[in-house]
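Data availability (excerpt). All sequences and predicted token strings are deposited with the supplementary files. A representative entry, ABC transporter substrate-binding protein, is shown inline so that the format can be inspected without opening the archive.
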Amino acid sequence: MKKSLVILLLALVMIISACGNKEEKDTKASANNDSPKMVTYKSETGDMQVPANPKRVVALTNGGNFIALGIPLVGVEEWTTKSPLYDKELKGVEIVSEDDIEKISALEPDLIVAPSTSKTLNKLKKIAPTVSVTYNKLDYMEQHIEFGRLVGKEAEAQKWVDDYKTNSAALGKEIKAKIGEDATVTVLEAYGKEMSVFGDAWGRGTEVLYQALGLKMQDKVKKATAKDGYFSLSQEVIGDYIGDYVVISKYADQNNTFQNTKSYKNIPAVKKGHVIEANGYAFMFNDPIAVDHQLEVFKENFLN
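Structure token line:
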């Protein structure tokens, strides 16, 4: 009787132990399933491990590229939120800066993208894999493909680039047929107390105008912007830098009274009505959403 009882107790202990081991294995398996799959990404600073399909991205550079690729954002820098083009996608997304270490950490990102000039890169790397990006190291199309490679959507990024090149080349031919092959265009912006003209790769529609559509830049602007990509100037001399057409990147909260001055009104392009006024915040960036919008604005204005 006692022997049977001992055998029974031993059997129960083995069953309980087996159940415990199974639960432990199931827990570990579950934890492993919850862990994101990591892949090797070749960044500017070398190979690093990033999530294959990021679900919680903090973009301290313009977030438009990630929105275009359908990547979920949990935090973006402030300038991105100023553009009306991303309003719908950024609802509920937190505004953060590179100094908001605690706030970014609380968002529990699985990927952070930051400018290479950020002074808090080492702190950000402790929160999540952090990819640093140097502005204009790649052109805007190459940069989009690179972001696509980062988040596992290179094919989608490449398709947008291919379609964009085809559409913009065709539109460029139409526009030049109407305004002339040698017609020049200047991009002008007044922000704060400064006025600036821009080169061919500084947002504000410049990539679309000069690179995609193949329109020409006024000679003086070309020389002045060759070094820095933009050139600040005084109101009195803006007429010297305006080509046959002028695109004014305007901000509703800024002083645009220069357009009421006699010197501005006497500029030949202004007299002819060759002025395109654009929402400065919608024209600031060069991601797919922004440049597709800019392409439509130029199509409407130059052709109509």
